[in-house]
Amino acid sequence: METATSKTAAATYDPKNICELLRRDGYVHLRKWVDPADVRSAVRAINFEIGEGISREEIELMRVNTISFGTDRLRHSQPITNLLYKTRAFKLVQELYGAENIFLPDYYVQIALRFPQDVGNDIISYLPWHLDNVQPGGVKGFGLIVGVFLNDTLQPDSGNFTVFPGGHRTLEAHFRNTAYSMSLYRHKYGKIIVPNIDIGDQHQILANAGDIVICHHQMPHRAAPNISPHIRMAVFFRIYHKHLPFEHPVDCNLRGDESLVDADVPSLCDCSKRSVPTDIGTMLINPDLSIPWIRGSKCSGSFQFWESTRRFITDSINQSGTLLDIGCANGFLLASLCYWLEQKSLSVIPYGIECDPSVLQCRRLFPNQYELGHFIQIDLETFLSAPTHEAPAFPERFDFIYWNVWVENYDLEAEIEQNILCKLYQMVSSKGKLLLGLYGTKPQNDEKLEKIKRVMFRRFPYVNNSHVQVLSSLNHSHNLLSIDAINQNN
């Protein structure tokens, strides 16, 4: 069913009012915010490129997909970017995010053209709603969509940008339920799978040229069919947040069917307030708040599962000191360990390396240490090739090094993988420990334990079973191999 009128059509330039509307409705429609001269300039630039040539295939793709029209030169040209930078919208975005938090990657601009259906084809057929940036290898690192309309769409079914007011909150409630937290993904062949839930009535935005719409990133939306005589022209800017990097892939888990899952639980970027450091203690006593971070740590289980399979790691840490997490992801495991160890009157100084940009989220959990260079994006092999060069803020040795030895990534058969294990052991301080997490099945863990011990005993003859301890999680589904560091100078 179509809603009769826009709830936000009369929004005024008042950041507090707009915040409330974004929370309530998920979008705000702001009328006549772009200078007509800037609109004409953008339309001219787009029409010039259309005149340079556009294939039938591109037109069809733009009817059913969200691909952007135009070359990189056009998308980043002044007539297009002025639609954001020369309007009050950019000032508003700065106030919503905090100017210091805005990050605009190369592909933040989408020129969205919706071509008319053929004459005589007045069939009204709606495409499924979708969320942006659900794709293999990427998730929603952005928090706001800013759309600028370049021509009038004052009648329904003119290619109108279509939203579902309040749908972002419906989806948030859905994704907060751990049973459904992975119910949104794009199949490896491109098909988007969306939750089969009622997200409410649609609203086609009836816009004048120069109007702006600002949407929460989790607002379900689509383009209406276009039975008008005109191409619908709009430009969309996706505003990214420095704390949620645009290539942030950690909400994605590779499923058995090789589909990438976007957990998207709940909105990780609350654009209605400035970003502040996240309090780990608050999250660990409120499972709902911790779920997005658990997903970001590449764990698909519940909060209870997370705690039962991670907290036991602290049983192997018997002194204060430095702790390096290999593959730290968003830092949530490190933050959890720090919090649990504080309850045992132990204090650790955290460090982390991660091969993907999820490490940038560590800024929210460890703002001071992040600025000191304790967290870097680097792959393990490169890091070990020259640790002091690649990570100048890191100490030469650590009191504790934790490495989750994924079954599918490291089988320790190849010499290069055995060398990685040995180099890590040599980076542990005297009286410290190398901690190896084993999160496979019991047969897999048992096999990996024996391989590790064989390698260690062969490479370091002074290491024997008395220096090795195997710990199990509360539910006995996961193991931790703790190896004491001794005689490191031998």
Radius of gyration: 26 Å
Portion of residues in beta strands equals: 15-25%
Strand order of the largest sheet: 16-15-14-17-18-20-19
Q: State the CATH topology of the largest domain.
A: Jelly Rolls
Largest sheet: 7 strands, mixed
State the secondary-structure class. Answer: alpha+beta
What is the CATH class designation of the largest domain?
Mainly Beta
CATH architecture descriptor text of the largest domain? Sandwich
In CATH terms, the superfamily of the largest domain is q2cbj1_9rhob like domain
Number of helical elements? 17
Overall 3D shape: elongated
Relative helix content: 25-40%
Instruction: Give the tally of β-strands.
Output: 20
The structural domain count equals 2
- Ranges where pLDDT stays below 50 over 5 or more residues in a row are 3-11, 135-139, 185-190, 245-277
Average per-residue pLDDT, rounded, comes to 80
For the record, give the distance between the C-alpha atoms at the N and C termini, rounded to a whole number: 76 Å
Secondary structure blueprint with pairings:
Blueprint: H1 15-24, E1 27-30, H2 36-52, H3 56-64, H4 72-75, H5 78-85, H6 88-97, E2 102-103, E3 109-114, E4 142-149, E5 161-163, H7 167-176, E6 185-186, E7 192-193, E8 203-204, E9 212-216, E10 221-223, E11 232-241, E12 252-254, E13 260-262, H8 280-284, H9 287-296, H10 303-310, E14 321-326, H11 332-342, E15 348-354, H12 362-365, H13 367-371, E16 375-377, H14 380-385, H15 387-390, E17 398-404, H16 415-426, E18 428-438, H17 442-459, E19 468-472, E20 479-484
Parallel strand pairs: 14-15, 14-17, 15-16, 17-18
Antiparallel strand pairs: 1-9, 2-11, 3-11, 4-9, 4-11, 5-8, 5-10, 6-7, 6-13, 12-13, 18-20, 19-20
